[in-house]
Specification:
alpha+beta; 5-stranded mixed β-sheet; 4 helices
């Protein structure tokens, strides 16, 4: 039995190992800041080691399997961040002004430049979300996304039901073959569709709501993080969105050091069946 006099390997009583500075509730702006920090780390790794190898084949496997869960992807990214030897900090108390501050040493190291316009992308991430379906599955970029049980209506999550969605299949080069979508709407009707992501975003221009003069300086003047393409299946409707993490010169919520960016989903295409 453990007592108060027992000490662990770290030389501290178990009762003293209490987490501190832990957010009581989830802060989506903090989540986005973490994603931006990971994007900066990825850029540094890319510069030192070169781009990751591309998969030679995206042939559909004989057996369907669900791709990596967003939570697993986030954990993997944070593990990579913690082991990279790079220190990336969110804005400190000294940056609680209206305009964000970037250390000159960081600016020089990352070669932060005014954004090249329009903002373009060569890679993207992909996320599937299903609402009001009896089942749904999507094959895209060599991976399955499968929901084999009934999904609740989007109304369950409120009017901003897409805002909490992060992660997905990352590092996809523009553009694979169209997404193959198979689902069953709530009335039991079976549907199939081919959604040509490459056709929707053929100009490779990132969609966002930030004015050119409000976009903060970027690494080499280009986006560091890949935009997320979100495919929503909602009963008999398919919607395609893009979410682009765009750093801004000013805090979007005054006084919040995690709000120097925009990352909302923007509707690109709607299909009814």
């Amino acid at each position: 039995m453990s007592t108060e006099d027992d000490f662990g390997e770290e030389g501290a009583r178990p009762s003293s190992l209490i987490p501190v500075h832990k957010l009581a509730t989830r802060d989506p702006l903090h989540d986005m800041q973490l994603l931006h920090d990971v994007a900066i780390i990825n850029e540094r790794v890319r510069r030192e080691l070169g781009p990751p190898p591309r998969s030679a084949s995206q042939q559909k496997p004989g057996k369907e399997r669900e791709d990596m869960k967003p939570r697993e992807l986030a954990i993997a990214a944070l593990i990579a961040a913690s082991s990279s030897g790079v220190t990336v900090c969110a804005a400190s108390a000294q940056t609680l002004s209206e305009e964000r501050y970037i250390d000159p040493a960081v600016r020089a190291e990352l070669n932060l430049q005014p954004p090249k316009w329009p903002l373009k992308f060569k890679d993207h991430s992909f996320r599937v979300v299903c609402y009001s379906t009896q089942m749904c599955k999507v094959w895209y970029a060599g991976a399955w996304s499968i929901r084999d049980k009934p999904t609740p209506p989007s109304a369950k999550y409120g009017p901003k039901y897409l805002d909490h969605l992060l992660g997905g299949h990352v590092g996809i080069a523009n553009f694979p073959e169209p997404a193959e979508v198979t689902w069953r709407s709530m009335d039991g009707t079976a549907h199939q569709a081919h959604i040509d992501i490459g056709s929707i975003f053929r100009d490779e221009v990132a969609i966002h709501n930030v004015a050119r003069d409000e976009v903060a300086d970027l690494v080499d003047g280009e986006l560091s993080g890949d935009p997320q393409i979100l495919l929503e299946i909602n009963d008999r409707t398919i919607r395609v969105y893009m979410r682009t993490y765009v750093p801004t010169k000013h805090f979007q919520i005054p006084g919040n050091p995690y709000s120097a960016s925009r990352y909302e989903p923007i509707l690109a295409r709607t299909y009814h069946y």
